[in-house]
Prior knowledge:
The structure is a homodimer. The first copy, chain A, is mainly alpha-helical. Chain A has helices at about 20-30, 30-40, 50-55, 60-70, 95-125, and strands at about 45, 75-80, 85-90. In chain A, a hairpin with a 5-residue loop joins strand 2 and strand 3. The interface between A and B is large, with 65 and 66 residues.
Amino acid sequence: MPPTQTASPDGRYDVLAAACPTRQVINRIGDRWSLLVLYALESGTLRFQELRRAVDGVSQKMLTQTLRALERDGLVRREIFASVPPHVEYSITPLGRGLSGHIVAIREWAYANITDIEAARERFDARP
Amino acid sequence: MPPTQTASPDGRYDVLAAACPTRQVINRIGDRWSLLVLYALESGTLRFQELRRAVDGVSQKMLTQTLRALERDGLVRREIFASVPPHVEYSITPLGRGLSGHIVAIREWAYANITDIEAARERFDARP
């Protein structure tokens, strides 16, 4: 078969290899809620309930799991403030900022191409 | 709450809105197998079995479903050749090519930052 050329230049990493640590990163990005949370945080810090309202349709449990995974990967920072009542704020870390630029590019691509994508779906669904 | 500023400039689309058609695009990208199939096809046309070998760990059923969804969205082209035995080839369409550039940027980001991500995970897991 032709080479897939997906490995890193030094050959150490390949996202297509199930055991490669970078594959876990792609698993994280390849998760709709992770993407949507990063979109919501792109423009600034949000509290948990603000995030929950921003990411239409996310459950409390799923949002908690997603934030925890993003925090574990160092992409999102969680800060607890000892106010009354105490509150928790989430923001994108400098590490996550590098990723979110690429993720925003995908959103812009979706906005620019949604008409073509919907036309493709209609053609596909109309096939005999 | 502060604005999330995720809407398209003309205000027609917002990936964070559950009913927005662009949200479906993000649901497609936010799927690890879609990403991995696009990575595998980035360097050229592949047959089904070549794809299955390239995308380590994908099942025949999941690969079939993923390719069908990518074809429906107009991102991947499926061509049947009347050889003996007949075979089927998959390639990225011009529409999908625009997306795959951004997806490749994410892979490059993952290769460049995997050490920081793994360090963040270790710090997270070591917390009391």
